[in-house]
Specification:
Blueprint lengths: L8 H8 L19 H15 L8 H4 L2 H6 L13 E6 L2 E6 L5 H9 L8 H9 L4 H11 L3 E3 L4 H7 L16 E4 L5 H11 L3 E6 L12 H8 L3 E4 L5 H13 L2 E4 L4 H4 L5 H6 L3 E6 L11 H7 L3 E4 L2 E4 L5 H13 L9 E6 H6 L10 E4 L2 E6 L2 E4 L19 H7 L5
Parallel strand pairs: 4-5, 4-7, 5-6, 7-8, 8-11
Antiparallel strand pairs: 1-2, 2-3, 9-10, 12-13, 13-14
Helix pairs in contact: 1-2, 2-15, 5-6, 9-15
Organism: Gordonia amicalis
Protein name: CoA transferase
Keywords: Transferase
Length: 413
């Protein structure tokens, strides 16, 4: 993917809305380090070109789109949504998320003591202060806790080596069938962008694990899923498991955003379908060979995308690893794999973020009347607030289209 000369990191950050989500709640917005907003804008260019303008999006503004709908703002070492923390460790910092109902119990297991919802964060902070980042990473991975030690220095470059970028010839996905197993933000954003580009998207859920984003902001959910078919199949039932396999076999593109063992447990091996010509997009916290889990906030911070003041480290944006990875995934899906060939894209969210870091320190923001601005080499630039596109009125109730989708593909369950 070529870089565009017109893309300037400071200007791209300023236009993205992310600075308004970065910094202390009682302090100024901050320009983050690195060039993640520039990468997002370049990925948007690739998607626009591949779709012949059908998916006409500004990738940089997608980074803060959810906050524009939820109204979340910057809270320093707390995530904008309030479910994650940056905590000092014996040799640095760790980023920890507690967004799921069982997370307080898991965090209690991490530190070896019982905690309540009110006492969990002070207790975890005491434990992390006495342990290294590696101690946390090992125990968090074993327990399935979302979080990781914050990388710095050469560690960031080491993580970035696994980053993927679209290359070769962009391809149209108009008319292709996309089967989307993903949930939350990164995978659904990928599916949304492919849908804008003309693909037919079928969202797959199981009765046991519906998309947790259905419980979140409904405007955001509708934005990402409007126009997509919704199918629910139970892989514990032989007939529905067989229907699920035939549906995946019919797909041109498959999106998964869980560790590979989840779909392998349903008898679905990515390698088998790729060998038959399928493009398989695998989005994980740290790659298919890692057992680590993570959400967008803690993944970005652990990759090294943080900012700092005298009081310590702070998060950048709202779960920024999610939209950056979703944009990357869509662009990868729109790479021409070659005649009769499939592709398995092993997309590490952590590596994607780490690859954007480096470069000169960002300039400070200051007030100019009622507006926050920043100085660049080419003049003063205003910091735009987060903004969102109009979404669909379609609420896509779970399983709504199961029978019609299967019938349309000649699949009987």
């Amino acid at each position: 993917m070529s870089s565009h000369a017109s893309h300037d990191p400071v200007r791209d950050w300023a236009a993205s809305g992310i600075p308004h989500l970065t910094g202390r709640s009682d302090g100024p917005p901050l320009i983050p380090p690195g060039r993640a907003a520039t990468l997002a804008r370049e990925l948007g260019d690739w998607i626009r070109e591949a779709s012949n303008g059908a998916a006409d999006i500004d990738g940089a503004t997608l980074l803060a789109e959810r906050a524009a709908l939820t109204g979340h703002s910057r809270h320093g070492d707390l995530t904008p949504g309030g479910s994650g923390r940056l905590l000092p460790a014996d040799d640095g910092w760790v980023a920890v998320s507690s967004a799921r109902p069982d997370d307080p119990l898991l965090l209690g297991a991490l530190i070896g003591r019982e905690v309540t919802e009110d006492s969990v964060w002070p207790a975890v902070a005491e434990w992390t202060s006495q342990h290294t980042r590696a101690d946390f990473d090992t125990r968090a991975t074993l327990l399935g806790i979302a979080g990781g030690g914050v990388a710095h220095g050469d560690e960031i470059a080491g993580q970035a080596r696994d980053a993927l970028r679209p290359n070769g010839i962009p391809r149209s996905v108009d008319g292709l069938l996309v089967v989307d197993f993903s949930a939350l933000w990164a995978g659904p954003l990928c599916a949304h962008l492919l849908g804008l580009a003309g693909a037919r998207v079928v969202k797959i859920e199981t009765p046991q694990r519906p998309d947790g984003a259905r419980r979140g902001d409904q405007d955001f959910y509708r934005l990402l899923h409007g126009g997509h078919a919704s199918v629910v199949l139970d892989p514990t039932l032989h007939v529905e498991r067989a229907a699920l396999e035939r549906l995946v076999a019919a797909a041109d593109i498959v999106i998964e955003a869980s560790r590979p063992r989840a779909l392998r447990g349903f008898g679905l091996r990515a390698e088998d379908f790729v060998a038959s010509g399928t493009t398989w997009i695998s989005i994980t916290a740290a790659g298919r060979d890692s057992d680590r889990i993570g959400f967008g906030d803690d993944v970005a911070a652990s990759a090294g995308l943080v900012t700092e003041d005298d009081a310590g480290l702070m998060f950048v944006g709202d779960a920024i690893a999610d939209p950056l990875s979703g944009l990357t995934a869509a662009a990868l899906a729109m790479c021409e794999p070659g005649p009769g060939r499939g592709a398995l894209w092993d997309l590490s969210m952590r590596a994607t973020v780490a690859s954007t870091l480096g470069g000169p320190p960002p300039p400070p923001a200051y007030r100019d009347g009622d507006q926050w601005v920043v100085d660049t080499d080419s003049g003063t630039v205003p910091l735009d607030p987060p903004r969102a596109r109009a979404g669909s009125a379609d609420t896509a109730p779970s399983g709504r289209d199961t029978n019609s989708v299967l019938a349309g593909l000649g699949i009987i369950r």
